[in-house]
Amino acid sequence: MSMSGARGGRERLVVIGGDAAGMSAASQARRLRGPGELEIVAFERGHFSSYSACGIPYWVGGDVAERDRLIARTPEEHRARDIDLRMRTEVTEIDVARGRVRARDVDSGDESWTSYDKLVIATGARPIRPDMPGADAPGVHGVQTLDDGQALLDSLAHTRGRRAVVVGAGYIGVEMAEALINRGFEVTVVNRGKEPMSTLDPDMGRLVHRALEGLGITMVNNAEVTKVHTGEDGRVRAVATEDAEFPADLVVLGIGVRPQTALAEAAGLPLGTHRGLLTDLAMRVRGHENIWAGGDCVEVLNLVSGQEQYVPLGTHANKHGQVIGTNAGGGYATFPGVVGTAVSKVCDLEIARTGLREKDAHRVGLRYETVTIESTTRAGYYPGASPMTVKMLAERRTGRLLGVQIVGREGAAKRVDIAAVALTAQMTVEQMTALDLGYAPPFSPVWDPVLVAARKATAKVRPR
Amino acid sequence: MSMSGARGGRERLVVIGGDAAGMSAASQARRLRGPGELEIVAFERGHFSSYSACGIPYWVGGDVAERDRLIARTPEEHRARDIDLRMRTEVTEIDVARGRVRARDVDSGDESWTSYDKLVIATGARPIRPDMPGADAPGVHGVQTLDDGQALLDSLAHTRGRRAVVVGAGYIGVEMAEALINRGFEVTVVNRGKEPMSTLDPDMGRLVHRALEGLGITMVNNAEVTKVHTGEDGRVRAVATEDAEFPADLVVLGIGVRPQTALAEAAGLPLGTHRGLLTDLAMRVRGHENIWAGGDCVEVLNLVSGQEQYVPLGTHANKHGQVIGTNAGGGYATFPGVVGTAVSKVCDLEIARTGLREKDAHRVGLRYETVTIESTTRAGYYPGASPMTVKMLAERRTGRLLGVQIVGREGAAKRVDIAAVALTAQMTVEQMTALDLGYAPPFSPVWDPVLVAARKATAKVRPR
């Protein structure tokens, strides 16, 4: 007796994880197949569904007034669309051979099996917690979930002192630094790398470093946190590195996340070198016809390096969900890969990158030239024209664009999209010099800064 | 005796026109070839060289404090780089057979011949002046040159009344409407078309129409100006159409420009259907090895329609100059064509377009689908998120992107660059749905509005 047979001919789609990738997949599958054809059951172990984790720093910083603004769709809204979303229910086992998952009610502890015809794994990421004394002390916060954000906000409200230490200087680290400045804290950022924003080359990271200092943030590079000191009340008092100690009334951990794939691994599903699930172009788990995976628990192909990479970003999770839902719903869609685009801001400083950094190019065996140019976001004579720096990498000989990094003020970051599309189309920097980009004095100098970089890169890879 | 022989082995490059295209060409040629190898003579009939005509509305409106901010390089600066720039000197004849040009000193009337080995024609555009009574009355202004801008500013200072009529609702028209509002005028825009911004489809132009009205601008569509009425002092008093009369203390003409090619035509050089010079990919005038042309006097290939088009924009002029100077200086560069990108703003409304409008697609025989979507410039919950509308055209069956139009608030316009690169790369709308664009809440919803449009267009050209 087939399992679907037991459900009166309806297929059952089971989704593990009720956030961006999982619920996008569920919603898209529902759009294509009505409840008479397809039953959809989704399990989420937390309190919230479909929320913008990327928005948490802005909620903590006060730019977003309330938590619920970050929730794109509540469990009730999903249920109203015939998606059986079971909150506070954690999947504890995937039984691939028999096509079923075991789920546990987090509050009652009750467990039961649910069979599936089609399975979507969207278990997301878990934050890296440093393995050191005091890391779990009151006053030390992660910022990955809405619950984390709420705990941090509560802590902000009750903390008397005004000294905050942010551990990590990547996207979350710098966004949290801004949030804490907005909340009136003195902020120190402790960073393991040479410069903040290790997703940039260090020469571009240095520009971010200077700008952070200009905002009154104390930036400590080349420093690994070894211990969190607590006071008599057990609450955080200071953060220690090998060389120094930084008084702290509050500590925010922003040192990244790892794919949450223990469940998948236990089920024998294939993981890559970054411990993320490996999928094919249709986002199916490799070797499995009826299991898909997407979002922060998978690795993605970087189209420039030709290698799998771990890029936990909400924008990819949403695309994955869309592709999975289309395929699981009987349509056809693919996710060809990423080019490594990311944008961020700290106060009015905008930071963007796409493609490969120098060390990425080295690692994958590409020879390249680099250029760095200074320009402005608008025509130099137009009010509000602000400096921006563009670094560009191009392959030697072929002149193919390999990567772009941008640091600048308002209007700088989204220019990286020009390079993101050019990378996707495998353009050379010389082809880019002829791009017909929007020009008017309020929007750009007559040569857009990206074109200025492309011109200079062209001259370097192909003299004259 | 060869002419270059007479110059001691040095070649002579003659440039007609001292603005963007001409002087970019001269500068780039000079970069590649020193004065010992190449003599460069440039003729400019006006008072200024290398200025940003696109900046004039912002100077008139007061955003740019002084005229000289619009001048990228003065005649003296060009001369310091060994470019013999002769101001107030008009070329009156090109003698292709003998390789020489006749130039006249505008002030003295003296004429003389100058021979060339290589010639660059960069004679620019002339504004369309309506052929009607009163068009030359005091108080009626064009805004093409710095001299025009100065005359208009003088007029603003002396005009008692505060009623202005702008004739034409294209880029210049709407930019001048904003400038005059900034100067405290009541502004009426009289427009021949169905809606303002005829570079957009009328349904998108309607959004501009509404926004202009929201700014307090009176918008009169479907109206052709037939007469300018003058008062007893001879100065403009009103503008008349067939049906109505609009009191006016000041009139600004923004009804476009035509290529200035009488000189080239008289010399037997090839003109296209828009009366612009026809060039090859190296920007050489077709059929002429040693004559180049660029800027507002040439037609350019539209890569989407496959046909020549007249697109007088400073950004193209600069690129033409760069390509011409590289080739004339012994290097190699090409200008492959345009995709029809343009951006503009009126107060905080941003307007952008690239590729083909519906009527362009019709005209060149392309069948297409269109979609129009509403989204926001930032994540909906992020402060400053503003509405933006994106219209997208895709070819039937193939799904190839044909065009994008955007109307919205801050951050909307430059998103058109995504589509401009995608058009250049001949992407389908389905390929676009996978583009790895920069996402963070301050910069974009998790699905960039351009991707939302691409998704919807994909569904339309290829159901499921």
UniProtKB/TrEMBL annotation, chains A, B:
Domain of life: Bacteria
Keyword terms: FAD, Flavoprotein, Oxidoreductase, Redox-active center
Domain Pyridine nucleotide-disulphide oxidoreductase dimerisation: 344-446
The species this protein was found in: Streptomyces cellostaticus
Residue ranges of the TM segments: none
Protein name: Flavoprotein oxidoreductase
Domain FAD/NAD(P)-binding: 12-304
InterPro entries linked: FAD-bd_OxRdtase, FAD/NAD-bd_sf, FAD/NAD-binding_dom, FAD/NAD-linked_Rdtase_dimer_sf, Pyr_nucl-diS_OxRdtase_dimer
Keyword Secreted found: no
Cofactor(s) the protein requires to work: FAD
UniProt family annotation: Belongs to the class-III pyridine nucleotide-disulfide oxidoreductase family.
Gene Ontology MF annotations: oxidoreductase activity
